[in-house]
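2 proteins. here.
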Amino acid sequence: MTTFRPDAVPGQAPPGDSVAPRDSTPDAPTSVSRLNDTIHGFVERWGSVWVEGEITSWNERSGNVYGRIKDLAVDSALSFRLWSSTLRRLPDDLKVGDHVIACVKADYYARGGDFSFTVSAMRHMGLGDQLEKLERMRATLRAEGLFDAARKKPIPFLPHCIGLITGELSDAERDVHRNAELRWPQVRFRTIHAAVQGDRCVPETIAALKILDADPEVDVIVIARGGGDPQTLLGFSDERMLRAVAAASTPVVSAIGHENDHPLLDDVADLRASTPTDAAKRIVPDVAEQRALVAQLRARLTSRLTQRVNHDIAQLEQLRSRPSLRTPESILTSREHEVLMATARGRDLVERGLDAGSRRTAELRAALRALSPGATLARGYAIALVDGDVIVRDATQAPAGSQLVVTVGRGSLAALSEGEIGEAGDPAAPN
C-alpha cells in the first residue's frame, strides 16, 4: 500500500497514519481525484517559506510572471508564478541572473495534478549591505589616490596588440573584435578567457591580467563584459582585482557594462568605456578618419604654402616696381649735380685756404728772418763760444789761451784767445 508522510516538512510532527485511504490496494485502488485532494490538503499545511537562489527564467504572460529559481550551490531549481497584483509591489529591476530571496507558498492544483510555488514577496539578496560595503571601499580607495587622474596612464594612440580579458564565446568579445577590426584592420588581439561572474571571476581575471601585463607586445588591456545587474558585477568591485589593476604597468580599460552599470573597476582603470563596443572605438583609431585627416592636413599645408609663395612673389614684385629698383641709375643722376657743385666748392675753399696759408707763411718767414741770428751774422757779426757751448759776452770770459769756436754768417772756425785788447786793438797791459 502506498503511503504519504509529511516527515520531510520541517517543524511538523509525522502523523501516525497515512493520509491516503487505507483501503487502496491493487484490487481496490483509490481514485485520482481523491489522491489529488489528499496531496492538496497535505501541501496546504506547509505554509509559506523564504528561499534564496538565482532567477534563471522570467516570462511575462497576461501581466503574470512564470519563472524558475535555481539554487546557487547545487543543481536544483523550482518553478514559481507571480500574479500581477504581487508584481506591482516588487522592484522594477528584477530579471534573469538576479540573486534574490523570495517568499513562496507551495500550491498543488488538484484538478490537473500540477505542483508549483506562488511568490508573495521577492527582493534582491543582501544588495543594500553590499552597496554599503562598496561605498566604504570606494571612500578608502579614493583616499589612497587610486581614483586620481594624475596616476592614470595614457592610452596609446595606435596599439599594435590589444590584450582582452572576457568571457569565452561572449558577445563582449565579438563586439570588441568586430568594432576594432572595422576601424583598423591590422589590429591584433591576445585574448584570455575568464569567468565574468561568480567565485571564479576575481582569481581568473587577476591571473589573466598578470599574464597580459607581463607581455611586452601588449600595449593596452581591456576587461570586458556585456553588462549585468549589480549582483553579478560584484566581482569587478572586488578589492583584490582593483589593486591588481592599479598596480599594472600596462594601461587598463574597463568595459564591463552599459551606461548605468558602474563597478569600482571603472574608477580605478585608466579609461572607462560605457560598453565593449565603446572600448573598441576609444582605443583604436578609425583608419578612414585618419586618412581623411591626413588628406585634410595635406590640403591645408598645400594651401598655406601656396599662399606664402604667392605672398612672397607679390612682395617681390612690389619691391621691383619701386623707382629705386626699377631704374637705380636715376638716384645717381639726380645727385650728380649736387656732387659736382660740392666738389667745385670744396676745390675753391681748398685753393683759397692754400693761398692764405702761403701768404701767412711768407710773412712769418720774413719776420723770422728779421729776428734770426743768421741775418745778423750775415751782416758781418760773429758768435764766439768758449768751452764748447758758452757764448762769450764779456772779454773776461775768454782769457788768453782759451779755445774758442767762432760762428760767422757762413760756417764756424776755431780760434785761440790772446786775451783782452785795448780800444785801439792792442792787447791790454797786464794788471
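next one coming up
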Amino acid sequence: MSREYDDVQLFTPRSCARTLTKLALAVSLIGGTLAATSPAHAAGDERGPDPTDALLEASRGPFATAETRVSALVPGFGGGTIYYPLDTSQGTFGAIAISPGYTARWSSLEWLGPRIASHGFVVIGIETNTIYDQPDSRGRQLLAALDYLVEDSPATVRSRIDPNRLAVAGHSMGGGGTLEAANSRPSLQAAVPIAPWNLQKSWSGVRVPTMIIGGEADAIAPVLTHSKLFYDSIPASSEKAYLELNNASHFFPQLPNTTMAKSMVAWLKRFVDDDTRYEQFLCPPPSGLAISEYRDTCPSS
C-alpha cells in the first residue's frame, strides 16, 4: 500500500510567536529524550542478524532448530511435524502451519519446515485427515493446527510461541486451504498460498497480508485461472503480493527453491514479526531470471 504523509501548517498571531517558539523547544527536548530511551521498533520485533541476500538464500537461517512429531490422534488435523528454534534468549516466536496438496503428505514439502524455522519461527507441517481433503477442509485443519500449537503442543514448543503472531501456508489444495483459513480468521498475520488450487475464485473478504506464489508453467492450477485471479480478487486495501516463478510447474515447491523460500521468509518476517528490515526484499519488487512476474502493494511501515 502506498504511504501517505500529511503536512500540517500552523498560522498564529505574531503576539503568540514567542510563546509558541518556547513550547516547540520544550516539545523538541522531550521528544529527543524519548527517542534516546526508546527503541526504533517494539521490543522483540527484530530477531536475528540484519538480513542480507546471502542470509535469505542460504539453505538454513541463523537459528539452530529441533523437531518433534505430532500424533495423528490429535483432534482437527492428521498430525505432522513441528520445527522450532532452540534459542530462548530472544523472546517468543511467530508460528506458521503449512499444508501439503491433494494426495500428498507433508514429506513432499519437508525441506520447507526447518528452513523457515531457522529464521525464527515455529513451524508445523501438517498431515491432513485424508490425502483427498478439499481446500475448505484443509483450511480448517490449518487453523486447528495453529490452535494445537498455542494450546496443546509440548511445553518446549508452546512456551516459544507468541499466540498473537500466527500464519498459514500450503501447496495446491493446501494453498487453496490457506486462502480459506485467511478468509475465515482475519486475525492471522500472514498467509502464503503456493501454486494454490480452489474452485472459489473470489477472495474479496481476505484482509490478511497474503503472498501468492505461482508457477508460470503450472498445468494443474494454471496461474491465469487460479493464482492471478486470487491475487486480483483480494482488495487493494489489503497487503498482498504475487510472485510468479519462471517456467515452474505445479510441483516446484516439492524441491528446495531458493527464490520461493527467500520471498516467503521475507514476507513472514515483515508481517508476522513486523520486522521492517525485510521490506527491502519486497519493495521495490524483486527481479531476476527465476522470476517471470511480480506484483506487490508495497508494505506500509
